[in-house]
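Below is how a single chain appears once it has passed through the pipeline. First comes the sequence as given, then the structure the pipeline wrote out for it. We keep one example in the README because the format questions we get most often are answered faster by looking than by reading.
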Amino acid sequence: MSNPSAENPYQEWVGREESRSETIGERTVAAMAATLDLAGAPASGAALPAGWQWLFFNPAVRRAELGADGHPARGGFLPPVELPRRMWAGSRIHYHRPLPVGTSATRRSKILKVANKQGKMGALCFVTVEHSTSDAAGLCMVEEQDIVYKEATAPGTAAAKPRPYEAQAQWVETVSPDTTLLFRYSALTFNGHRIHYDLDYARHEEGYPNLVVHGPLTATLLQQFATEHGQGRALQQFDFRAVSPLFVDRAFTLEAREESDGSLAVWARGPDGELAMQASASFAG
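Resulting structure:
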């Protein structure tokens, strides 16, 4: 009989929990609005926009405790997966009720699953974490987040040729990411991953042609875009999956179409027509 712990040495991390509390500060919210070039920011007591919860509950890790990629070093709450590359692969978010700006909130996190897989480019390890965020009035949102660890790409490996995504959109909006946008979003989320601001590292260590647009930033823009075309309804469920990276100084588009059940199919299309992120949005009422 096989030994599950031998096949998956990180199984003991399943069920681990941690909790973080923070005030949903107006200053941070105003800074995010400025970063997204919005005319105004939600005031105290107003609902925090979808996706902006990722500005909060991020650990303040000392520089001495960071890995070479700028992420917190392996171990702690998340398992010490030895594969060198990590990324946020996607999430499934259920919004139960608004999280007001200015309120004190708590995010409780639990590791639901750790799964080893073999992909086309080598070994993969998926870690699924559930985040439940509440304020004094009760539960506001629950998110299942997928983090993937993978092998490093061999030097000189050619990137896959983009394949045009054929879906037709009802609504399209162009985004032109620049270095200021990436810098500000990294600062607001206290994200030290060097692929977003260190060009030499992004090119020579992780094999990207340029600085990489943050996956959660794209997901935030897609949620904003979906809300704008939701006919005044509150966003209730948003699921997204990262497909291919987007890069600084290369414009991409946010696109959506309405489905027969009233939900929206939403996606980000890269500058070469490729699918960068796929998502679905459903609404209350």
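The helical segments are 4-7, 26-35, 179-188, 199-204, 215-228.

See the next section for the split statistics.
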